[in-house]
Amino acid sequence: MCFLGFGSYFCYDNPSALQAQVQLDMKVNTADFMQLYAFYSWPNVVLCFFGGFLIDRVFGIRLGTIIFSLFVCVGQVIFAAGALFNAFWLMEAGRLVFGIGGESLAVAQNTYAVSWFKGKELNLVFGLQLSMARVGSTVNMNVMGLVYQRIKDAMGSAGHTTLGVTLMIGAVTCLFSMACALILGYLDKRAEKILNKEQGKTGEAIKLTDVKDFPLSLWLIFLICVCYYVAVFPFIGLGKVFFMEKFQFSPLQAGAINSVVYIISAPLSPVFGFMVDRLGKNIIWVMCAVVTTLAAHLMLAFTLWNPWIAMSLLGISYSLLACALWPMVAFVVPENQLGTAYGFMQSIQNLGLAIISILAGVILDSRGYLFLEVFFSACICMSIIAVVMLYFVNHIREGDLNLTSWEREKQQKEAEVEDESE
Amino acid sequence: MYAGVWLLLLLAAGTLGVPEDEESRRIYLQFNPGSSSSAVNLLHTRAVGNGSTIHYVWSSIGAPAVLLIYTETEHSQLRLNWTKLLSPDPSGAIAIEPADSVLYSTALAFTRIFEYNDVNNTANFSGAAERYFYPSYDLSNFVWENANNTLNSSSLSFHLTGVNATDPTGSFRNGSISFKVTAYDRHGRDASSPRLLHTANCTKLEFQMSGVQPRGNRSRFALEMFTLEEKSGRKKKRSVRSIDDEYTPTIFEVIELVPDAPNASHAQGYFQWKSVAYGSQNGTRSDSLPCVVHGLQDMNGTLPAPSIIQAFYGEQLGSRYNMVALNVSFGIADGDFYDKNKYLVWSALVGYGTPPRDSFSVLVICIMAVALGLPLVLLIMGTILVWYLKKTVFTNYQPIN
After folding, report:
1. 20 to 30 A Cα–Cα from B260, which one of A69, A118, B167, B301?
2. Which ipTM did the prediction report?
3. Which residues cross the membrane (chain B) (predicted)?
């Protein structure tokens, strides 16, 4: 299941790994190049939401997953074909199709995880998925350049064809993901037969207007998610120049320190996932993660300390947050709304990222990095406020977000006993 | 309530950073005092106030240069001997009366502009091979326009604009070099990039190249200057790294040239600039050209050209003063070349006393105070609320028990 997302994450960052080559071979400037990412992001603001809805309502999880991974595959192939035929607009179209599948696939992956592992090792599974995603990005960053080089050597010259062939090879990982989707579908079907387990939908009538009935806790989780991620990803996107100017790093060092967040989160996510599984207390972990991130941002903003400290802290807290935050959704909404909830979460996260990325650029140009860091810190503080509120809301309503794992187990057993007695 | 305390603390910390010398001075600007000629440019700026006078003498005679003379009286006067000043031996042509009121003086002269072909786009000026250098522009060979026409008494500014006299390559057909000088009568901050903070004790100098045709499309430039200090001291480069780039986005370094005189009895002069130049008029971040200082090299020979420095300090400069030369090169590796907009502007401050330092803006302090205070307030209020609820629940239960 973890490999399901591998292909999409691998290909998502293909442009970034081959930025120089893409710009040279396709003869486009940086702004046009960034369009490749924009074309991925914008449709997702709406689509994730529908993706989740489609999984819950229309296709069911198995068919949904297969369809979305098909989109990813086709998108990547179109993207590569665009390079082969030297048509940049085709590449953009490819990214659009790829985007339709990409984020929705992530929603499907989350839903699968919950339907199989809720009450068991859910946090660990989320951790593993995250680390797989990071491995995908990292492998891509390191491998695509080499592949390009090899093909260039084999063909004797560089050009759009080289790029196209390289990207086609990247598409193989998508095929691999699709194979995973098929296997998953088969396994899930079998499990359903053997265990009489229901598929991740119950046939209950859910409407899009369900969104307004989402519990307050879920909205708070959304708020934490948006405020947190907007202070991490746009910062990493703008970080390279920051390390070069403020800490006088060479471009190479700056690139290295900028990717340390991802590198740390790859091995650490499963560890944290396991830990949160064993200990429960999700809200406390989220709190720790958010406060640590705030500390990291404050360090970067107001001190000249070695940024490796702050960036490592950021990497650690980022993986902890992902492991503790995402599974919480499963505790606050009924299972049949999970797809919608995850889709919505992904949607507003994308929306937040798109808006804040633009805003961050404007702030940087007019007021500089100090102000940008202050702005990001304020976002994190917003997130802290949401965590604190979540804690109290959960406390007052006696929700089970902050129970220890043994308390959860106890509750689950009691519920089973009740079920049996009915 | 906690937010309030935080706010107060941070505000207190913020106000400490505001320079104490918020004094103002009266500025007097004079073009060629005591001469009706407009063939040469000599501008005298007097900044009077607080029982002292700072004289700035700007001139394009010889190479463009400035003298900074600090006197401990409001009534010191500049005495010029024009015939001597324009003669081959100008020594003693510029003097201050009374002579014993002069507490400190220094000078800065701009001598040459280097242009080199940055073939690999590494912006490595000091490491560039000799063969990549074009013949340098010697600023003493320039023809300068009449600065009287540019004198603006409301903004307290003027330009010294010049073009290469010989100009064999025609580079200056549509362009020029200019030094724009702006005096200040009070504490404040510039509206245009790099938005330098200034006091009444300093003057801003902007070096600007506009429309000058580069001799290659990968040309980068550097400005050569020299400065002097009495034998007891020596000019030193000081790089001040700050965490605050609010006013000059992405630029965290301020360079200061200050005398290295640990046991000086009085304040001294300084040159200060942010490590940045701009490649366009609007001075946006995308057009910023980081600049680098190269070497403070001892120059103990005679001056390359007679100038106001010789006129004020007299002969045998080398034996009585420590003279150092330095280059400021513009541009960064993988950055845009001058050719892009054919424009370059670099700003520096020339002043007396402690160089101004940036401090956090009130906006930053407020945002931090609110952002950090609010979660704390919420936490405390929440705890009280939960405690209160628990108590009521507890009291509700008691009768049942």
Report:
1. B301
2. 0.83
3. 362-389
